[in-house]
Amino acid sequence: MLPDYSVIAWLLIVFSVYLTGVSKGGFAGGFGTLSVPLMALAISPTQAAGLLLPLLLVMDVFAVKAWWGKQSNAEVWRFVPGLFIGVAVGTVLFGSLSEQGVRLALGILSVVFAAYMLLKPVAKKPISSRWALPAASVCGFTSFIAHAGAPPMNMYLMPRKLSKETFIATCTITYAVVNTIKLGPYVWLGEVNMTSAWASLLLVPVAWIGVRNGLWLQSRVNEKLFYRLVILAMFLVGINLVWQAL
């Protein structure tokens, strides 16, 4: 049985899944951070997260296949311990997080990430790899809460001065790892259930189209303009979520 969502909710869900696919295919997953906040405008943030996880795993298969071999294995392995820590903390705290609290956290995260992307300083030299563990731990936690692992990952990887392809591939593999780690806790906590699974299955074609379009777009689109539009959208959605929570 499919969830009884409104037409507006389904439109937001379809658009969010497509945007996540485009992001996974060619833009290091960063734009996918917008998906749960967008869906949370119409449905519960926990419902949104549960519906999206199986689709993320499907997208990961397509994206990893496209980018495999171009990643920095050293950076991926540096992230793995922290990802487990972050997911574990998210699992333990899950029952204590209210829906309004999740909305507020999502809103603040969206606004902070937008501000960071607009104001980030240009690093003169790569930051130390010692920052990988704390960055990965925060990544695992925010990814567990709302599939929003991109901000902490980008804050660490961007100053590492990787090439564009290496950066995208490294993010892609790392997202696949953390999403796989999350699956067990999501099922155990009931976030992924039969109802959400049916909705996820229905949206697989949208996810596939999004990934394919992302792979096609990443070498053709004006990235600077695209980033600015998504950052603006994330800022506005974040403000809306904070307003709803308060």
UniProtKB/TrEMBL annotation:
Query: Where is the major localization of this protein?
Result: membrane
Listed name of the protein: Probable membrane transporter protein
Where is the protein situated, by its record's location annotation? Answer: Cell membrane
Q: Cite the PANTHER family for this sequence.
A: MEMBRANE TRANSPORTER PROTEIN (PTHR30269:SF37), TRANSMEMBRANE PROTEIN YFCA (PTHR30269)
Q: Pfam families, per this entry?
A: TauE (PF01925)
Transmembrane residue ranges: 7-27, 39-64, 76-95, 101-119, 131-150, 195-213, 225-243
Transmembrane helix among the record's keywords?
yes
Q: Do you know which InterPro entries this protein is assigned to?
A: TM_pro_TauE-like (IPR002781), TSUP (IPR052017)
Q: How does it sit in the membrane?
A: Multi-pass membrane protein
The family this protein is said to belong to = Belongs to the 4-toluene sulfonate uptake permease (TSUP) (TC 2.A.102) family.
The superkingdom of the source organism is: Bacteria
An annotated GO cellular component of this protein is: plasma membrane
High-level lineage: Bacteria, Pseudomonadati, Pseudomonadota, Gammaproteobacteria, Oceanospirillales
- Which key words are in the record? Cell membrane, Membrane, Transmembrane, Transmembrane helix, Transport
